[in-house]
User: Fold these one by one.
Assistant:
Number 1:
Amino acid sequence: MNIRRSVGVILLLFSFVCLQAQERFVLKGKVVDFITVQPLENACVHNMTSGLMVFSDAQGNYALMARPNDTIAVSRVGFNVEVLVVNDSVIDNHSHFFIRLLMKSIMLKNFTVYAMKPYPLFVKDLAKKISYDKVDVPGITLTEEEKMQAVPRSEQGNLLANTPLAHPISFLYEKFSRKARLQRTYKELVSNQDEVMRMAEKYNADVVKRITHLSGGEVDEFMLFCGFSYYTLAMSTDVEIEQMIAKKFIEYKQYKSANQ
C-alpha cells in the first residue's frame, strides 16, 4: 500500500509539473507607438509576476516567458507605462502580440529666440538715456506684444520691464537652470497631451478597419506598413488621412501579393 501510495503521489506531482510546464509559453511580438504603430527600440518588457525582463530590439521585437494571469508592464522613456494581464486574448495571439505605448508629448509649442549681446554691452545700452517712445534696443529682438508691455521705471527707464529681458541674469537662469527646464518640460507635456489624443481620434485601428475591412493582427501589420509620421498626422485633416489610408491599402495588397 505504501508503495502504491508513493507511486500515486509521484505521478500526481509529475502531472502537476507537466501541467505547469505546458502553461508556460513565449510571449513575443512588437512594441510599437500607439498612434503610428512604428517599432520602439529599448522598451522594457517586464513580467512582474516572474521577475523576467527583456528589452525590444531596433525593430521593436521582444520575446518573454509568461503564463496565464501574469502581469506584464511595458515602459519606455517619453511614453506612458502600459500594464496588461496575460488573458485569453493575449494567449491566442502570443506569437505575434503587439504592445502599444502612448507618447506623452509630440511637439513643442512655438518659442521665441532672443538675440542677445554680451552682458557688458547689454548693460551699457540699458544705461543710456533712451526716450520713452523707443523700445528697440540694438541687439535685442522683442515681439510686438513685449514692446507693448515695456514700462519705464525711472527717468532713465528700464524699457524692458515686464518682458523676459527685464533682468538678463534672471532671464538666463530661467532659460538654462535645471529646475526651470524641468518646469518647462512638465508644462509642455501637459499642454501637448491633447495633441496626442486628437491624433488618436483621427488615426486608429477602428478608422483603419472601416476603410480596409481588415481584422485581427492584419490591422497592426497594415498600420506598421503605413509608417505615417506624427507630423503627417498632425498636419492632415481627417479626410486626408482616410485618403492616405486608402492609397496605402492598395500598395499593401500589392506588396502582399508580390510576397506570397
Number 2:
Amino acid sequence: MNIKNTIKPHSTYNFKPKTVEKIIEKFCMFIDKSPENFEKAIKEDLKNNKIETNIKKLINIARTYKKNLPVLPTFTSTTIIDGYGNLCVIYDGNPYITLKLLISALRTHNNIVFFTNNYFNTNTILIESFNMISKESKYVKNFAKIQRNYFNKEIIKKQNLFDLVIYIGDKRSFQTVQSKLRIPSIFNGYKIVDVYIDDKSFKNILLQIDKYAYYNSIQVNYFDNTKLEDTINYINKYNLNDCFVVFTKNSELAYTFINSLKCKNIFVNKDPFMEYEFDIDENQLVYTKNIITSNY
C-alpha cells in the first residue's frame, strides 16, 4: 500500500473556494461532453459487478451535490476551520459514493484515499478526472487515490498515514476496525437496513423493498419472529446502521421504537427507498482551532 509518496499533505497547498468550485464545474462539463470513456469503464465493470452505473445520475450528482451549501473551511485571526488532512474511505465501491466524497473532499480541503475492490474502472476514471482538472486548475496534482487488493489489517497497521477513517457499510465490521484505531472515525450505515414486521398486511410494500434491495445490493435485516424488547436491545447494542423500518398498525408499538431506538432514520409503514441516498455531513470532515493570544 504505497500511499505516502502519492498524496501531498493538504497543508502544502492553498485552499481557494473559487478554485474548488471551478474544478467541480469543469468536471460537470467534462463528463457531459466526453461520456464515452465513462461508458466504457461502466461497461467493463459489469463483468465483475452486477449493478450498472447510470451516467446520467453521475452527471446530476456532479451538478447538484452540496452546490447550495457554503464551502466549509474558513480562516480568520481568531478561528481556523479546516479539513482533517488525509481521509481513508472503506466501502463497497459504489461510484455514486465515490463521486459525492470526491466533491466533499474538495469542498472541505481534504485529500482522500478510497479502499475497495469493486467498480474499479469507473472509480478510477472518476478519480483521475478530478485529479487532472485539479492539476490543470493549478490547485494540487493528486488529492485522491484508489487502492485495491487490501486488507483491513493493513489499513490499521498503516493508519498513521491518515487523519480520519470513513467506514460505510456494516456496523459490526466497522466496530472490529474501530477498536484498533488510534485516529478519529466516522461510520455511515448506507446499504444496511433493519425491518421489523408486526403486520404482514403490508405485503406489497415489503415486496417493493425486497426488489429494490436485490437490484441495488442492499442488505435488509428482517425482524419478524423476534420480541420487541429483544429487537430494541439487539439494535441498540450493535447500533447496526442508521435506517430502521417498522410495519405495524399498533401506534403504541411504533412509538416504543421511536422513543427507544438509537437510530438516525426511523420509517413507520413506509418504503425507506423512496428517498434513499448516501449523504455525509461535511461538518464531520473539518475541525476547528480557536486562536487565543495574550496582550503584551
